[in-house]
User: Fold this.
Amino acid sequence: RVVVQGLLLAAMRMLHDSPHRTGVAAPFAENLLLIQFGGTGQYGNPIAGGPANGNATGQGARFDLDGEHSAGFFWAMVVDCPGPEEQERKFPWVYLFRNRFDQDVCGLGQYRGGVGLTDCFVIHGTPQLSSNSVGTGSRFTKNYGLFGGYSGAAQPRILIRGSDAKELMAAGAADLPMSVRELADRRRISGEYTFGHTNSEGETVRDGDVVVLARGCGGGYGDLLERDPDAVLGDIADGVTSPELAARLYGVVLAQGRDRVDAEATAARRAEIRAERKRLGRPYKDFVADWSQRQPPPEALRHYGEFPVPVQVIDDREYPTEPDSDRGSWHR
Assistant:
């Protein structure tokens, strides 16, 4: 999938230098998380499967428009995304929340990427289920930005074991979390929190456990400092962007009351950010000389091989990925 996204970025750059440049867009979200469940359903029936809501990922920003929220899936533009009532009818769980406006996770830019759908549900009506998950992007995002746009955020697999969510819901608690950020930051729900890899081996989830399925967010397009301040204000009103992030990265400062943009303060903040960019800038040859001396820790290279030229590791055997032009053969 890294290759797919990389090829798309290359194609978009070529398209930009053509009469078809109006078709340029950042990639669709591709931080995938699919969870499958098996066991006994709430009606005593056998079940096997999982929610199809992975289809509701965020669209990448376009050359003149923001990406759409919960727009589709990167290899299938015509897909279905069942509603929460249908999911609760089919599977033994109840929803804690379901939204498409997780804050500060979409790809930022002159045009921002769309936000993907997030599901958070509580296992209910069955003692336990077997589950496993497949996915990408839990540590390093693949929702790349384009022409200066930022990537959409990485999204781990979140599970809360032994939670008191059902008790809080039954008591009508008014302060239940309504987003992933609230869930993770406030810890209003007690239990054992796990922020894991999207690929997981088989495991058991039990009655009362909380499962979070966060879909990817599209990459941004263009320089953040070129975004219309009023568009940033709209993102803040929608809950997509926090005022703090708006000031720190977009350089957009709100007036007192936070209902309008402080134009003078925004101009000053953006000038400050541009000056800082110049201060941090380095000639390319100096950057490469320093960068080439760095490498990840050994444990991160276990399935990578020699750095910086990788090798493929298959069944603990290494296969080079580049030929020796002098000998005309593949070698380490």
